[in-house]
Each structure stands twice: as C-alpha cells, then as structure tokens.
Write a structure and sequence with these properties.
By secondary structure, the chain is of the alpha/beta class. The protein has 12 helices and 17 strands. It has a 7-stranded mixed β-sheet, with helices on both faces. The chain has a 4-stranded mixed β-sheet with strand order 1-2-3-15. It has a 4-stranded antiparallel β-sheet with strand order 13-14-17-16, covered by helices on one side. A hairpin with a 3-residue loop joins strand 16 and strand 17. It starts with 15 loop residues before the first strand and ends with a helix.
Length: 397
C-alpha cells in the first residue's frame, strides 16, 4: 500500500518498537546500537527513567494552558538555563528552527529599538544549517534547500568559514549580526577553531554587531561542556538551543543577554505551544541529569575514548575512513566511500549512524553511552568498513 505521508524523507526500511539507553529494538525484535540519537536529540538515550517519570507525572496533571498565563515550570527552567549560561532571558519554542527564527528577529529588533532599523542583515557561513523555514534556509544558504521555494528571503549574506577578509568585506551599514555554529553538524562536523570564534567576538564588539551562536546540535553537553562555545572562552549575545534540551520531547530555546533582547517587548513575538507544561517538565528533568556533578566529565572522557578508538579504526581502514572530526560525543568520519552506503553497511551491522555533508557520517550517541557501548560501536564500524573495502579495491582495479 502506498504511504499516505508526504514523500520528503528517504527513510530506511526499518521501524523501532522500543528502546533502552543507547539501544533500540526493531519491530522484528532485533537490537540496534543507536549512535545517531535521533540526530543528537535523545541526549539521555531511550526511556530514561527520570525523563519518563517527569513526563508521565506532568501528563497526569496538565498539558497546555498557553502563554496567556504563568507557567511555573517554565519560569524554573528559564532561571536554571540563565544561571548556567551567559544569558539573562530565555524564550521557549518547539524546535531549533523556531529558536533560530527568534534569534534572527531579536537581532533585527535590537537595532530597530536602538534607532537603526536599516541594520537587519545577518552574515552567515558556508556549510551552515540553521533550519527549514524560509528564513532559516536563507540563513543556511545551501542551494539544495532553497531551490524551488521562490525568491530567497532577503537579509542574509554568506562568506566562507575562516575567511576574515571576505567577512570584513561583507559587513556593511545594514549588517546587524553574525550567526555561526561552533561545530557545523549538517555541514560535515566541521569544527570552527576557538581562535576564529574569539576573532568573531572581537569583530562584533568592534563593529557594534550581535554574535548569534546556533547551538541546536552542539549544546546541552554534546561536546563535554554545557554549550560548545564555552571551550573558546567567549560568549555570544544570542544563542539558540534545541534537540538535546528536550531529550526527545520537542523543545527549543533562544537565550540572550538583556541588552540583546531590549527590543523584544510584549507582543513582538510569540508561540502557542512553546514553553508548555509538558515540555518544561521534561526540560527540567534533562537539566537535572546533565547538570549533575560529574556528568559533563563523563561525556568528555567517553568522547575522548571514542575518538581514540576511531583513530585506530582509521589506521586499519585508511581508504575507507580518511579523517576524524569533532569534539566530545559529536564526532564525524570523513569517508573515502559514499557516506549513505557506509551508513547502510553500518545498519547491516546493527549500528545507526547519521550521514552529513562533505561525505561524512556523524556519530552522535546518547550522552549516557558507556565504555562498552563505545567498544561495541567501533567493532561494528570496523565490520562495516571491511564490507566496503572490496568495492574500493574493485574501483581501483
């Protein structure tokens, strides 16, 4: 029977029935090691007992009231995020794209509130991915996402990552902000050097621009810090987060300094579902775990272990695995074979990985992953690489 769903996804022929920790069980009863985590969403794995308890308890009390009324758990989650970051205020949404929309609007409104409404343009960087709305595909700038959807939304200028001469040339009297991911996830797990982030911060300060950090994929512990920009020692003015903050429940947040948010007064922005009691209960439960003593240290340690084992994998299969990229538990393999074919080979070994740009596959395991899970994943990657080598030899001959 033909599917009734819009065919916008090239889905693998695999469906899951349940999960526990870093493992999923298919409807046929087969176990898969999940090193995709729903594209960095299931930060605490599947069926985490603290998240399940928080969601079910809240579900029995109250789901939705709208932002016409106070939501105490939202006040609590906002305060915890503010206390743990550079920010003074938080705005809750349902996704990363919505959090980025809020960030873009906030940057424009900041300058309008300061008497400069002509400053609305945002400079972004090649290889970026900021979402699927009309504004965020324009911000990302990737033509494959823009084609066929009419004129590109105005207000975004793209430059090559790391090309500061091009960046200086792109900044003009209409520029409001720079927007960047500290690690480009969809773009191929490209790490922006810490020194480059520090230069961007200095440039924003010099030119009166806001620095927007898109931490939708890198945030909430993924790299071993609560947010990845912390490694560089700088702070943005505005930051988006999503994915891991809800642990699998749809939740996004835009965080900002009070100064950057000065134009966002009552009625300037809103959301029907954002910040609802169910999402806030889960978000607080995620922070209970991620902010617990030792948790981020665990992520950094296991991430280093995985990176070391992947380096050995590359040594064993240099024609298949060409480069290891990333930080913490956000790692990528730059491949000498087609990334979608490698992901299929890994799936054949009951390991889930995520293709990305630049012929990379991403390894984005739940942050609760164990040393044993890491060892099992690398064994399966080894088997997948071995599967791919005969094709490489055949092509060479």
């Amino acid at each position: 029977m033909t599917s009734a769903l819009l065919p916008t996804y090239a889905r693998a022929p695999l469906a899951f029935e349940r999960g526990e920790g870093a493992w999923l069980v298919s409807r046929e009863g087969e176990r898969y090691l999940d090193f995709g985590a729903g594209i960095a969403v299931n930060a605490l794995g599947h069926a985490h007992p603290h998240l399940v308890a928080a969601l079910t308890e809240q579900a029995g009390k109250l789901w939705h009231t709208s932002n016409l009324f106070e939501i105490p758990e939202g006040e609590r989650l906002g305060r915890r995020l503010v206390d743990a970051t550079f920010a003074d205020v938080a705005f809750f949404a349902n996704s990363g794209a919505e959090a980025n929309e809020a960030a873009i609007k906030m940057a424009r409104k900041y300058h309008a509130a300061g008497g400069n409404p002509e400053r609305f343009r945002v400079v972004t960087f090649e290889g970026a991915f900021h979402g699927r709305t009309l504004a965020t595909i324009a911000a990302g700038g990737q033509q494959k996402y823009i084609d066929g959807f009419g004129p590109k939304v105005d207000g975004f200028d793209q430059v090559p990552t790391g090309d500061f001469e091009a960046l200086e040339a792109a900044i003009g009297p209409e520029t409001a902000a720079l927007m960047i991911e500290p690690i480009q996830g969809e773009g191929g797990v490209r790490v922006i050097p810490h020194e480059h982030l520090r230069r961007l911060r200095a440039l924003c300060d010099e030119r009166g621009l806001l620095l927007i950090m898109d931490e939708v994929q890198t945030g909430v512990g993924r790299t071993g810090k609560l947010f990845a920009h912390e490694w560089s020692g700088i702070a943005p003015d505005i930051m988006s987060a999503a994915k891991g903050i809800g642990g699998g429940f749809p939740l996004g947040v835009c965080l900002a300094t009070a100064e950057a948010a000065r134009g966002m007064t009552a009625g300037t922005h809103g959301t029907t579902f954002g910040g609802n009691p169910l999402a806030m209960a889960v978000g607080n439960a995620v922070l209970d775990v991620v902010l617990a003593p030792g948790f981020l240290d665990h992520v950094a340690r296991v991430g280093l272990l995985l990176k070391q084992k992947l380096a050995a994998l590359r040594d064993r299969h240099p024609n298949v695995v060409q480069e290891i990229r990333g930080e913490g538990l956000m790692l990528g393999l730059k491949l000498g074979v087609t990334n979608t074919e490698f992901a299929a080979a890994a799936r054949g070994e009951h390991l889930l990985v995520i293709p990305a740009g630049d012929n990379v596959v991403r390894l984005l395991p739940p942050l609760i992953v164990t040393d044993g899970d890491v060892a099992a994943a690398v064994e399966r990657l080894d088997a997948a690489a071995s599967r791919m080598e005969p094709a490489l030899r055949g092509a060479a001959e």
